[in-house]
Amino acid sequence: ILNYDIMARFRRRTCIILLLFILFICSIMMALKTLRPDRAGFGDPFGLGLLPELQQRTVLLDNKQNSLNRVQGDTVTSVSNLHSIAVNTMKASMPPVNKLEEEPSSPNYNFHIFYYSWFGNPQFDGKYVHWNHPLLPHWDPKIANNYPKGRHNPPEDIGANFYPELGSYSSKDPSVIEAHMKQMRSASTGVIVLSWYPPGMADENGEPTDDLVPVILDYAHKYNLKVTFHIEPYKDRDDRSMYHNVKYIIDKYGGHPAFYRHKTSTGRFLPMFYVYDSYVTIPEIWANLLTVSGSQTIRNTPYDALFIALLVEERHKHDIHRSGFDGMYTYFATNGFSYGSSHHNWASLKAFCDSNNLMFIPSVGPGYIDTSIRPWNNHNTRNRVNGKYYETAFSAALLVRPEIISITSFNEWHEGTQIEKAVPKRTGQVVYLDYKPHKPNVYLELTQKWSEKYRKEQEQWLM
Prior knowledge:
It is built from 14 helices and 12 strands. By secondary structure, the protein is α/β, with parallel strands linked by helices. The chain has one domain: TIM Barrel. The strands form 2 sheets. Strands 1, 2, 3, 4, 5, 6, 7, 8, 9 and 10 form a 10-stranded mixed beta sheet that branches. The protein is globular. Its EC number is 3.2.1.130. InterPro entries: Glyco_Hydrolase_99. This is Glycoprotein endo-alpha-1,2-mannosidase.
């Protein structure tokens, strides 16, 4: 009995020690997990390359090495070796510079990206277009008087807070179009949402661009990308003009292999049109075009399509439904700027869309800054936080399981929402923002990362 008692106590003590040991190991693992950067929780493929701390440390070593070289000549061998170790460590953890361009992922046709072809320069257009954007005055004259007036003077001074790697380019330059297609393909986006005005029309600072559509379609096809249209709020846009413009687009471009058609739940393949500032037209006018019983109906005709309205305020969701639209998108890359662009409202908007047979297409962006053209608009600036802002937006979008995610934008430089490659630049009194400590293609890489994550998660949603 005594031996049995001793053995029982021994087994009990052993079990307790083993349990404590397991708990200790688990607590160590949890502690280590909490030390990982936020992005690592989503399987960050860039490792240490996206950690500003390591990048900054390497830059400091680089600066130290340069200054010592000037003073001490060859006496900095140890610092040089230390710098090489840091750089080699970073290189080992990051993908090769041209990996995305050499081995692009297949395009994700559920990733739609807004694209602008309104830029011009003297070489291709005879003058600068859009890069010389005017400084827009505040609507309150008292506030407007506190800010500068005039317009930008390219190529050194452009209407943007960042500076493009391609410089103050022309959207007509074939080499620029091809470079853009390569970048969008490397980011694993699939559908270009092209800003569009009817022939002969343009925004107040631009020139007509419809003639450029065939070239964009050709280059898009070369890179397996598709093109759809972002119909801008041109003068006198109503049910009749929209009918004629949709007919024009489908008749002229609908036969091109790069023209985008979306597969609906009923198995039909329909064109898709994003309609910017749709809310400026009353629902009754839209209903004439977009409902089966409308006087100008496009439904059940060869020009039927999916029409996606811009939602800004909460009440717009009811107007969109009454108008006969097929879905809604949020466009703005400023979390908190509008009801639609606020991430915390996306779940309720998705629920509304689901219950009313509408598509909900959230728009994610890398940040926002437009003070180069609206110098009084600091309060709407959204810092990129070295890519974290962009990743937070993607994370919020995936939570609502959307059929499509839209990206604002590839190259809306005026509003600082671009993911196109940007470079550091300082000229005269102008110091442009940049993507440091990362490379010019960091937002393309982040887009590719989230495109792949979205693909994997979507497969699980459909199971």
